[in-house]
Amino acid sequence: MLCPPEELLQKNQALSTTWQRYQALPSFESFVELAVSINSFTEFLIDKGVTALHHASHQLEQVTLALFNKDVGHPLPQAALDDLNERLRALTRMTHAHASATAGLVEREQDLHHAASQAVRLGQIWVITDAPAAWNSLQTQLGYFGLAAGFIPWETAIPDSADVSPLLLLDMGTLHESAWRPRIQALRQRFQMGQLIGLGVRSDFEQLHEVLGGGCDSCLLEGTPPHAIIERIMELNERHEQEAFRVLIVEDSKTASHLIRRTLAENQIVSEIVNDPRQTLTALKQFNPDLILMDMYMPNCTGVEVARIIRQHNEFLSMPIVYLSGETNVALQVDAMRLGGDHFLTKPFNPVFLNTIVRSKIERYRALRRSMYHDSLTGLLNHSSGKNTLDMMLSGIAHEGGFLSVVMMDIDHFKQVNDSYGHPVGDQVIRSLSWLLKQRLRRHDILCRYGGEEFLVGLPHTDAEEAFAIMDRVRQDFAKIRHPYRDTHFHATSSAGIATYPLHQTGDALIKAADAALYRAKHGGRNRIQVDAD
Ligand SMILES: Nc1nc2c(ncn2[C@@H]2O[C@H](COP(=O)(O)OP(=O)(O)OP(=O)(O)O)[C@@H](O)[C@H]2O)c(=O)[nH]1
């Protein structure tokens, strides 16, 4: 989607206002605000794919950051002020030019959306190729996972209405090698935020150099089978689905906490503020953050004391705590880390530095949690966390009322799959079913690998009839997936049993009833879904 020009101009206006504020009151604090505002504008441009302006904004950000040097006082020296002024004015001029150039296009794009039912809609995934027939099977297989892929010949331009960050699979084998680099460069130029994957590239240095040097993110070498291409696409898809990062700010100063909150919000990080440290435990339970930003000195207790209290609770043992303090005393910092902290940032903080630390700590924390609560083969919840999540969801449903359907799904004759094709191929079949479930179910549904080839699914606010309709489509599509084996392929089927709350009241009772229904589905001939009340 193109960025609406009004939104772009509004963001640019906000940036100009902070610059005017700094000029009127050239303090360190207002310079921090300016840096935050520039960083936010750059992030906005990346988010909206406004690549034409991104470079200038990023440069401005770099220049501003370089001025966070303790030898540079405020107001800034005249030369630095002039330089910033010129850069900001140039960025504003470019923003206005871009906004007027895209105004017509946005209207056209909206018209196209209204006419979408008439038009042939290209998917988010495009295969650029002159031999589409060779990719029909990939397109069909992706369709079973709920992903649409379209074909575009190398000579045809991608329409203006294109998404700004598509996934482009480039069939290099159908383009003369001398044209590789310029073609890839042109696509990269246009889709700076897209993912470009070169297909059918030889493993030698020259070809890889051409493709990666031209701007592809990665290559899938000659002979890569369709299921490996699908696997790469699924991985990319999952990376896009991350939930927003969440930070709890424990800070007695309302001004400081709001400044931090704004800095984080401008980087799409969600936060909650606790001004009274005694409320920290309640806030932790309610808000469920990924990281705590902790002021070091507060009335009543210090940040270190709060951190020690937090660490007495098992569930928060590994949660990252980053201290914020005006203190530069190294011995004290070491002591604070020894007593339960993970990092120390000195105030006034550099906003970009703050965001970088927060993001990298949260990424590590999430990776750790994934390994604790998720199954390594499929990435789904593991047995015990699946059951715990079901119990928690059930208490919510019992409180607010409504249905909850539990499904036990199992791959048919899986022992034969292993015996005929080998354990690694069996693993791949398990992963295919998990991908399919991930694509088809909602974000808040429970998805768990309950045992070897058995999955537990929890569908809140879904009665048995609706659950049957959803799962039966999954069953049908799973049966169509081609699992590769040597030069050929095979199909697998699945069966499932469904039980629903309030007919069964506890998590254990629901699982037992769904399991009994699954048993009946197996004995009824397999490749079918059985509801427990039927
Ligand atoms: N490849 C692979 N196989 C597994 C995994 N976990 C369990 N299995 C195998 O899954 C098979 C399950 O077989 P059974 O429970 O006998 O049932 P089935 O052959 O699927 O037959 P029905 O369920 O009755 O249709 C066993 O052979 C296990 O060794 C795993 O992680 N990977």
From TrEMBL:
Residues 246-362 form the Response regulatory domain. SMART domains: GGDEF, REC. It catalyses: 2 GTP = 3',3'-c-di-GMP + 2 diphosphate. Residues 402-534 form the GGDEF domain. The modification 4-aspartylphosphate is found at D295. It is an enzyme of class 2 (transferase). PROSITE patterns: GGDEF, RESPONSE_REGULATORY. This is diguanylate cyclase. It comes from Thiobacillus sedimenti. The lineage of its organism: Bacteria, Pseudomonadati, Pseudomonadota, Betaproteobacteria, Nitrosomonadales.
